[in-house]
Write a structure and sequence with these properties.
three-stranded antiparallel β-sheet, 26 helices
Length: about 625
């Protein structure tokens, strides 16, 4: 059974709710209908427990990014993910939407009506179901007789964060949206036109501000095991910073619109930008971050998850304290408790192992849907914090051994601890075999995805948590906004706090030749830090979009063929037992261009900025309620 929730305790059957509710059950007998009796709002909101479970069901519509089940919503891009559209990952899975629609350049507006494997479907991602149910709850919970006023206000706050989060999920793909400010009745005439970017942002932020006024800062320690995932004031305030960052970025906040291609009605009506550059939007981000950190200073609980006391463990080994801290920060439950870094998370519970058809994210990895690029690996500094450099032979010799600890938690590299031994990612090795030589399969780039699946043994049959928002991202959001405000030293300190958690020296110490008092140089470092700290967490692709990074979209990406220096490159299956035991210690490396498949619509010719935002389904635009189509579509 699918369970995509913020609250792990309840297993709730999904249901629709219009004038009445279709038959559904929760647990053994919750709201079980007698024959011929409709379950209506008058039933649900007559008891506190019924009302609570209605809201818990709404939590089940929150965003979970990993492809998990064979359906239009949970299959994502047919086993693909957004990160494979960035410069950090490449998909070698021929049937996913990444390949069929985007790498091929065949995506069009019409596919939003006819195909379920586009980036983020306007009508298929359970956004509007969640929004409608949340408003139904807000509008009806005051009728519940056996619930205190304080609890009603708290639960309304949670429902408002659900609405804001689901709106943001659409906003980063489409821009301005129609604003649903109440639960629409099935017989009501829908006449909400598309709002401007500014109106959409204000709508989300106002909901979060209202929620912050009623939500507790965190959950009580005793409640975390049962209620982990419920929204808190910290979650609402953190999400506000993320929304404001996206809004203040050049995609929407610039002197010129991102696209001049027709149709231009959305541009003219400010549905896809603010209509000009507004520097004050960056001040709003700074203020929101400082509000968050003031609350942290006053109330505690949240912060970067720090490593345990270092007992001299070698940071190049698998089980060092820095790797453990980083992994726990993105994967450990107990927001505000065991994991002070987690602000918003969702997760999936599944029954069996990696090949259970009911949970196929591990299969996506095995099929090569997310193969890390050499460009991504190059972003990670050395273990002392200094940048990796292909012109430095000493650093090249340590390309897979003495790097930022986060690399080993995100990317499987040659020689890393893997299923009780060392991974053999050289051409002909046990894992890689001929994958890098032929550019195919799980090891097509000479690397493999490690995050979330780990070594396919340590994470088998366990709930995989999706880190929607972590405190480390707030630090990096703050650093970016401070940079835009000209407060460079404070920005550097905010980045250094994140680096320190994994044992790296600060930016200035690690980059003595870099001018960090220059906005462009510092911004590049912050975006690089975001790419590695938040690797495979739905961040890099959207960073490239919101910063209109056409140069990165058109960069030719590479893999890395690793060869044994002793020349033994035959297939691992053909080696004798003695040869298999002869582990090589020296390697040579050859970068190669990724061509299978080629990203035709990015690499060939001039990049078209229309790709930054998705197209609305023509069926929605043609309903003539004021939904303008995005430029270029």
């Amino acid at each position: 059974m699918k369970l995509k929730i913020g609250i792990i305790t309840f297993i709730i059957a999904a249901f629709s709710f219009n004038a009445c509710v279709d038959e559904f059950k929760v647990g053994d007998n919750f709201l079980e209908k007698e024959p011929g009796v409709d379950v209506t709002a008058d039933t649900i909101f007559t008891q506190a427990e019924y009302a609570r479970r209605f809201l818990w069901n709404t939590y089940s519509n929150l965003y979970y990014a990993l492809p998990s089940y064979w359906n239009a919503v949970d299959g994502k891009m047919n086993m693909g993910m957004f990160e494979a559209l960035s410069d950090c990952y490449h998909s070698h899975l021929s049937w996913d939407g990444v390949n069929r629609m985007y790498y091929s350049g065949s995506y069009s507006a019409g596919l939003e009506d006819s195909d379920s494997h586009t980036r983020f479907g306007y009508n298929k991602e359970e956004v509007w179901q969640a929004v409608r149910k949340a408003w139904l709850f807000i509008e009806n919970v005051d009728r519940v007789p056996d619930m205190t006023t304080d609890e009603k206000e708290r639960l309304k706050g949670e429902a408002k964060v659900i609405i804001a989060s689901r709106y943001f999920d659409l906003f980063r793909h489409y821009g301005g949206l129609p604003l649903a400010d109440h639960a629409w009745d099935v017989n009501e005439t829908y006449e909400n036109p598309r709002a401007t970017v500014e109106e959409t942002v204000n709508f989300m932020v106002n909901l979060l501000d209202e929620a912050s006024a009623t939500l507790p800062w965190t959950l009580d320690a005793a409640d975390i095991s049962n209620w982990d995932g419920r929204f808190t004031k910290a979650a609402a305030m953190g999400l506000k910073t993320k929304i404001l960052l996206f809004a203040a970025s050049p995609l929407f906040n610039d002197a010129a619109p991102y696209s001049t291609e027709g149709p231009q009605e959305a541009v003219q009506n400010n549905h896809v930008w603010y209509g000009g550059y507004k520097p004050e939007l960056w001040n709003d981000v700074v203020d929101a971050c400082e509000d968050f950190f003031r609350e942290v200073d006053a109330n505690g609980v949240y912060g970067l998850l720090q490593p345990a006391t270092d007992n001299g463990l070698d940071v190049t080994k698998y089980d060092n304290v820095y790797r453990t801290a980083y992994r726990d920060a993105y994967s450990l439950r107990g927001s505000g408790g065991p994991n002070p870094e987690m602000l918003i998370s969702t997760r999936i519970r599944y029954r069996a192992g990696n090949w259970d058809w009911n949970y196929y994210f591990p299969q996506s990895s095995m099929y090569g849907a997310f193969t890390p690029t050499q460009e991504f690996v190059d972003m990670f500094p050395m273990s002392d914090g200094s940048p990796f450099d292909w012109t430095d032979a000493g650093k090249v010799s340590k390309i897979h051994t003495e790097r930022d600890p986060r690399l080993y938690e995100i990317v499987l590299v040659n020689g890393a601890e893997y299923q009780g031994r060392q991974a053999e990612l050289w051409v002909g090795g046990r894992e890689a075999q001929q994958g890098p030589a032929n550019e195919e399969g799980q090891f097509a780039t000479g690397y493999a995805n490690y995050k979330f699946v780990l070594d396919f043994a340590k994470n088998t049959a366990k709930p995989t948590l999706w880190p929607y928002l972590r405190v480390s991202e707030i630090y990096l959001i703050y650093a970016e906004a401070l940079t835009k405000a000209g407060r460079y030293n404070e920005a550097i300190a905010s980045v250094d706090a994140v680096r320190e958690r994994v044992g790296l020296a600060g930016l200035a110490e690690s980059n003595p030749g870099l001018n960090l008092q220059d906005e462009e140089s510092l911004m590049k470092e912050i975006l690089r830090e975001r790419a590695i700290e938040l690797g495979f967490e739905d961040v890099r692709f959207f960073d490239m979009i919101r910063n209109k990074m056409a140069d990165r979209f058109t960069t030719q990406l590479h893999g890395l063929a690793t060869y044994r220096a002793d020349g033994l490159e035959q297939s691992w299956s053909d080696k004798s037992a003695s040869e298999r035991g002869q582990r090589p210690t020296e390697f040579t490396y050859t970068k190669f261009e990724l061509q299978k498949p080629r990203r035709n619509f990015w690499v060939t010719g001039e990049f078209n900025p229309k790709w930054y935002l998705s197209a609305f389904p023509p069926s929605e635009v043609n309903k003539d309620y004021g939904l303008t189509q995005n430029p270029g579509w």
